[in-house]
Amino acid sequence: MGTVAYKILNMNGKIILLVVGLCGVALGGYAVSHYVLPPSVTAVSPRQGEAVEAVYATGTVEPTVMIPIAPKTTSRLTSIEFDEGQSVKKGDILARFEDDDLAAVLDQLRAQEDQTRKELERKSKLFEKKFISEDAYDQVKTNLDMIAASIREAQAKQDYLQLRSPEDATIIKRDGEIGQVIAAGTPVFYLSCCAPLRISAEVDEEDIVHVKAGQKVLIQSDAFLDQTFEGEVISITPKGDPVSRSYRVRISMKEGTPLLIGMTTETNIIYHQVENATLIPVEAIAADGKTVHKIDAQNKIEQITVKVGIRDVKTAEILEGLSLEDKIISPFDADLKNGHQVRVKEQ
């Protein structure tokens, strides 16, 4: 039993020594890389570019002028002459409603008008020859005037049953189907006319002080992910919404912008813009918002304080403290201290 025990111990001893030997090599390599070689960092240089401060707001594309077209009386829709997306001229009949009763009344009135006119011609000759009194002649004339007035009234009612375009326009929406009874005042068509499309955006009350008419706007939409369009602030509603705590801002779009009515947009209203600004990545700045790690000619860290100007989610404008020839560490590493030696990887 002792010999066996010795052999097992001997074998285990070799294994242990081997393992310890391997671990020693690994630990030695780690020590060299971690404690002998300086840490590797990524260095970037400030660049010149455009620094922009902007107010962000979501918006919706809408017609500048939208006209609802509705019947004045309740009736059944019998025909639709134009549909969504089509252009129409002023006076075009867009749709017709059932008017059989009025048509019959008009036919009857026109027949009476024709008969009365003939009677008036006959009475006129008789009156000239003094065969009838002036009162008898005037009575026929009055009857003819009353019939003409009734015809005009019936024609007006019939016109109510025809929806006409009030202007040259584009149909942006149609409701109702043939055979459906449409209540008076219920829009069947919505027309866009007279001006280009615009964006209506909601701006938070704390940001509205920065917004003015005439400011440039950058516009993006999920429908055109790789494109940015330009617009301009047209107007700001003078009264805010106390519930949403926002103000409505109207934004014009350049001619040819492919956005469609109803599309949602992301808008950036630019209120401060600096050309040829000195820019660095935001991630190169410490949490205090003013400290960066500059790398000197000997690849040592110099912790410096900078003055930051315009700042967005990616870049920051440096007003003081850095030049375009400097190199800084990005992202900022709080473990590195002033005077530390580093190995530089440039981007």
Shape: rod-shaped
How many strands appear in the DSSP assignment?
A: 21
Strand order of the largest sheet: 2-11-14-13-12-15
> What is the number of helices?
3
Main sheet attributes: strand count, strand direction, barrel closure: 6 strands, antiparallel, barrel
How much strand content do the residues show?
35-45%
At CATH's second level, what is the architecture of the largest domain?
Beta Barrel
- Contiguous uncertain segments of 5+ residues: 1-34
Question: Could you walk me through the main structural features you see in this protein, from its secondary elements to its overall organization?
Answer:
This protein is of the alpha+beta class and 347 residues long. It has 4 domains: 40-49 and 275-346, conserved putative lor/sdh protein from methanococcus maripaludis s2 fold, CATH 2.40.420.20; 55-64 and 195-274, Efflux pump adaptor protein, beta barrel domain (Elongation Factor Tu (Ef-tu), domain 3, Beta Barrel); 66-98 and 161-194, RNA polymerase II/Efflux pump adaptor protein, barrel-sandwich hybrid domain (OB fold (Dihydrolipoamide Acetyltransferase, E2P)), CATH 2.40.50; 100-159. 26% of the residues lie in helices and 39% in strands. The protein contains 3 helices and 21 strands. The protein has helices spanning 2-36, 100-128, 134-160; strands spanning 40-44, 47-63, 66-69, 75-80, 87-88, 93-97, 162-164, 169-174, 181-182, 189-193, 197-204, 216-221, 224-236, 246-253, 264-281, 291-295, 301-305, 307-311, 315-320, 328-329, 343-346. Strands 2-11-14-13-12-15 form a 6-stranded antiparallel beta barrel. A hairpin with a 3-residue loop joins strand 18 (307-311) and strand 19 (315-320). Helix 2 (100-128) packs antiparallel against helix 3 (134-160). The protein is rod-shaped and about 135 Å long. Mean pLDDT is 85; it is low at 1-34.
